[in-house]
Design goal:
Elements: E1 8-12, H1 17-28, E2 32-37, H2 40-53, E3 55-60, H3 66-78, E4 84-87, H4 101-125, E5 131-136, H5 140-143, H6 149-169, E6 174-181, H7 193-201, H8 208-219, E7 229-232
Parallel strand pairs: 1-2, 1-4, 2-3, 4-5, 5-6, 6-7
Amino acid sequence: MASMDGKAVLVTGGTTGIGRAIAIELARQGAKVLIFGRHQPELSDAMEALRRVGEAEGMIADQSKPDDVRKVFAKAEDMGGLDAVVANASISAEGLADISDEDWRYAMETNLVGYLDVAKRAAEAFDGKTGDIILIGSVSANNRSKGTSVYTATKAGIQGFADAFRKEMGERKVRVSLIEPGAVGSDMQDCSPEEQRDKIAKGEMLKAEDVAELVTFILTRPARCTISSVRIEERVQS
């Protein structure tokens, strides 16, 4: 098993939910973590938690904005470059018939176009050296539930992209992995924190830390191994 000690990792959307849990776990494992999010209060709170366990930097950025993504990678370069990128930043979205034009376009720019932008910049940053790109998708790519058509479109797009991109990057020494979680306790859930804790206790929902541990597992595999795709779900499913 490889060590995360001293590795530099960018976690997009690392201020809340799954991204925050991933960043904290990687920092605890000795990685130097860079995170970004859209809002200062959440960033400040996440940075306080991160610096209690390890080394971290953070900034305000919006994944839907190409200039912001470039600023993030410029910051990473100033830190000495990256060893891994975890593309996680994502927002929820209603079904297409019930969402405004502005909101569904913003969801697509954030959840799909922004993911590709991050992956493109990561490929450039890794040019000529080994690296890892982990894409956090969703079981929605296959479940395709009523009322999730916009969100499903973005996650199905990520699923297909990950499969093809992995083949493109293999010969360039870059591993590409896709994680598709089921229901995870986070600020993206409709139910209250108390209801989420109850569901987690009953095995009806995952903790964000479950996904974080899986990210660490993938990043610490020997160089000969690629964990191409993992679906992680709650034990009791509706």
